[in-house]
Amino acid sequence: MEINDLYRDVILDHNRRPRNFGDLQPADASVEGFNPMCGDHLTLRLRLDADTISDIRFQGEGCAISTASASLMTEAVKGRTRDEALELFDRVHQLLTDDAAPGTEELGKLAALSGVREYPARVKCASLCWHTLASALKSTDLKSVPAVSTE
Amino acid sequence: MNHSALAQTDRTFDVDAARRQFPILGRMVHGKPLAYLDNGASAQRPQNVIDAMDEYERRHHANIHRGVHTLSQEATALYEGARDRLVRFIHARSRNEIIFVRGTTEAINLVAQSYARPTLQPGDEVLITHLEHHANIVTWQMVCEQTGAKLVVAPIDAQGEVHLDAVVALMSPRTKILACAHVSNALGTVLPVRRLVAAAKARGIVTLIDGAQAVSHLPVDVQDLGCDFYAFSGHKMYGPTGVGVLYGREQLLERMPPWQGGGEMILAVTFAKTTYNALPNKFEAGTPNIAGGIGLGAAVDFLSALDSTRAHAHESALLQHATAVLTRIPDLRIVGTAANKVSLVSFVVAGVHPHDLGTILDEDGVAVRTGHHCAMPVMDFFKLPATARASFAFYNTFDEIDRLGAGIERARKMFA
User: What is the CATH number of domain A3-149?
Assistant: First the structure.
């Protein structure tokens, strides 16, 4: 276990310059995610074109892992359908928690998150944005998606 | 690094000898010697505490206050012996004033439910300060909701200090309870509790002091403080978790109804009427944490044997050194700069989130706390989501603080 395996260059870069960071107006859905133990807080706003995520942006306050994960996520799901994004959520969740997770080839840059698995206390940081997104995508009423908490 | 002034303190307090009494301090974390700088969350246990609990489990365990057999009598003597030590430790008047509880949180809840709830009327006020731990906020919010009383919060200043006049200004004829920390867990501020209690007493206000962060750093004399209640936890004073103490003035405790029913707290039970036991057992329903109580008694023995003047001087030197080391780091801000602080430093580093810092320091074997420290209103006051906090005990060294400084520099470079 090496600290540089957690804080890979991709993570550091996305923390320093988060992509798709900021407000999105108007949006079809706005969801909040909280990590009460850490004080991390994230607002995710997205636009849907039929079933496809046409735009997505995030705002909030969090550690490097949580910021980079949200940044990477927004890049990865933009242009994907709801089902594709939810499938990706499952893959990332597996990547973060399961030592026997399959190869990461098709995950692209998201594979950089695999180092988090060795730091159980930090898995919540990386998964907050994904749970927040999943909550929106699984919701039947996009106008009132309940806030997500990792506790 | 110039340690000359501080090295003198090093010579007078034998840190190595103190460290040898704490087996855990010899362990490695990620291949580095553990630098345990999270004593504010929980302090480590000396060998005599471990031995006392081990000996009890191996030789004396039985339920207390119940049996005529040898083991029950031995266990009772050990447990009640711990209570006697606690009487002396905080200078209570008698054993009736020492109630064993699970910890500070339970002690505050006991007072809120058994003293405050039956006493408070709608419109009455409970006065706390802005730097309280959640245990000393939420508990009172709950009892205010139950009674219609109002929670009033005294301010802190930019240094994280509580000023006597600012608290006194909020004392009104409706103020019935003043509940405040002796020492802030998030900032390290020592509150002027003696003067606060005197001001409250002069107005007939009942006082509760949350001593969780104080007992390990300061001598506590409840009669000198003059408070009505004083709450503290075993594990912050080198004892076990799951045990703590509520000190209460006997006169008040006598008037209060029990807050939990069960065995131990009764004298006689029929279906028509139950006669409650006398103090302190009235408030100790059910079989208690016997091993924990005995361990806490051993922790008092340990602290009593410690050269507390020198230990305290060493802790002050550690605080001074840590403040100097951290102040030299660019982009680092110390949060909580009260003139009177215990050996604890909360801080933030621009560009490095506290959680990332905590993980990076852990890789170096340095354990610090990161987060809101169960004091979200303090974080809101300083407009921060979280801080990192290094909290020192007498067994910490200047070298450990230098390692903390080096770890922070490493994190800064990584995130630059």
Answer: 3.90.1010.10
